[in-house]
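Predict the 3D structure for this chain.
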Amino acid sequence: MRIIGSSCRRRGISTILGVIIFVGIMFTAVIPMMLVMRQADTLHEMRKHELGILDQERAMESLCLYVCPDGPSSKNVEVTIVNNCEVLIRVVSLWINNETVIMEIDIPSLSEEVLVPLALDPVNGDEYDIRVTTDRGNVYTSENGILYYQEDAWVTETLGIRIILPSRPGKGARTNLWLNELRVTIADEEGDILYSNYTMYWAISASENFFELESAGDYKVTIYIWCQKKISEGYPNQHWEMIYGPNEIHSITWPTDDPIIEIKFAIDGDHLIVPG
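Done. Predicted structure below.
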């Protein structure tokens, strides 16, 4: 005689065991794999975000490198690194032609660092291409070009005056009348006008303009800014307002000093000033 009840119970137990084994496989293989994949996706997104921030900071970097002799008869050169942006810049290497000097120098926002003079020991005909690299991967060359040593003296490619403005505050963040257009006039010591009402635009971010000069000497700089009308303060029309000059004289004495002079403005309330 067949016992039907026992057979059914065995089949039921087999089914339950199969389900338990399947669920066990799911928990021990599939679900951990899904968690690992999700974690990998999360790490990938985090890395993309970090790279995006790095790219943004790399684009924000603004650095100027100036190289000049340590003295009128010295064979050593002095290197000045100027951070013109709003983020800290870390310089990790200095390139001198094909040689690399490893370093780690932090330059805070809107400040500069003067390196220990470099002993180059040049001979006539030598030239030096000097650059720096930051930890974000940007490479900056010397603003005054390649240095040449000829007839027992240093020669540079570029002389000039650089005008630097800070970030321009938005209209809602200031009570002054400034607009974004400036006019720059530069005259030499004989009174000859080299740049007459040269137009310079002031961006929301920090702005700068370089005015190349042919030789060392004394130069007079005058700067005006275009201002909006504000009848309540007695300005019925738009007008030009002098912010620098008219008797500001700058002397370029290369090679005894830097070949490039900087005029760096700062905001003091409703005024643009050049700190003394």
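The helical segments are 4-60.
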